[in-house]
Every structure is written in C-alpha cells, then in structure tokens.
C-alpha cells in the first residue's frame, strides 16, 4: 500500500517556479503517487500556456521599428466612450499591438475618433494611459486596448491606409532617433 506523502506546496509556490523545475516536481509527485500535487502542478503548467486561440494584436517586425504618433478610429457618436470627472475620457476597446502602443506613449501619441475616414476627428487628444481588456468568449481570449485620453480641441485628419476602421500615422525609425535627439 502506498504511503500518502504530505506536502507544503501551494498553487502560488508552484506557479512561481521556473517551468523546468515545476515539471521535475510534477514527475516526482507522479512517481510517489501524490495525485493531488500532480493535479496542482498540471494546473500551474496550464496557467503558463497561451490560449489556443487569441485575437491579441501582435506587432509585425516592420512595426516595431516604427513609432505610431497618431491612432485614428472610426467610432460614430462617441460609441463606448466614458467621460471622467477630471475631463479625460476612456475610449471603447480596440485591437492594437500593445508593444507598439507602449513606445507611442513615451512620445505623446495622439488619439482621434472619426464618424468616417472622410471627416476630421470629432474627439481627439493625447493618450495618457491605457488598459488591456481580456474578454473570455467560448474559451478564447480576445485582448483589446481601452485608451485614456486628455482631450484637446484640434481636430485631426484621418491618417493611415487600409480598408479597416483604424489608421495609424507613423514615423520611421530614423524619425525616432531625431525625436530622441530633440529630447536630449
């Protein structure tokens, strides 16, 4: 008869381990018949795996070298916009490459909402911050970005090509170095 072994592992402790060490703990638990610990290890390993299907927007290699200075979206009549008491507003959620956005924040990127691509923006401003929103629908993760914007009164013309509901104004890598030189 196998003797039950007491352990002090928690899911938090297991999750903090490097994956290779976590797998060793699982193998040892399996060998010694500690089925509860095996299940905990399996859970901790499962938490590390990316979802099977995700709609998180990943930046293409060509985008990483670019700086997006303006984000334009077709959003009729403030759909999903939430106004804050300090005068800022939150946009509705958009699928945007988070790593590109993080770089844009450093350089004071602009945000603009348009009723159509043919019209100047009706709501615009400087991006102050953002929130990543993960929606879980039928086992799939759909990651989107909500923008926190400090509004201004200067409408922006649509920027960017393509047939979708969003457009980006970009500066090539050489332009980024020029901006860095100005800030130094």
Overview of this protein structure:
With 184 residues, this protein is an alpha+beta fold. It folds into two domains: 11-48, no CATH class; 61-183, no CATH class. Helix content is 31%, strand content 28%. The chain contains six helices and seven strands, in the order H-H-H-H-E-E-E-H-E-E-E-E-H. The chain has helices spanning 11-16, 19-31, 35-48, 61-64, 98-106, 173-183, and strands at residues 67-74, 82-83, 89-90, 110-114, 123-137, 140-152, 166-171. Strands 2-3-6-5-4-1-7 form a seven-stranded mixed β-sheet. A hairpin with a 5-residue loop joins strand 2 (82-83) and strand 3 (89-90). The longest helix is centred in the N-terminal third of the chain and has 14 residues, at 35-48.
Strand order of the largest sheet: 2-3-6-5-4-1-7
The overall average pLDDT, rounded, is 81
**What is the ordering of alpha helices and beta strands?**
HHHHEEEHEEEEH
Q: What kind of sheet is the major sheet?
A: 7 strands, mixed
Cα radius of gyration in angstroms: 23 Å
Poorly predicted runs are 51-56, 175-184
Number of domains: 2
SSE class:
alpha+beta
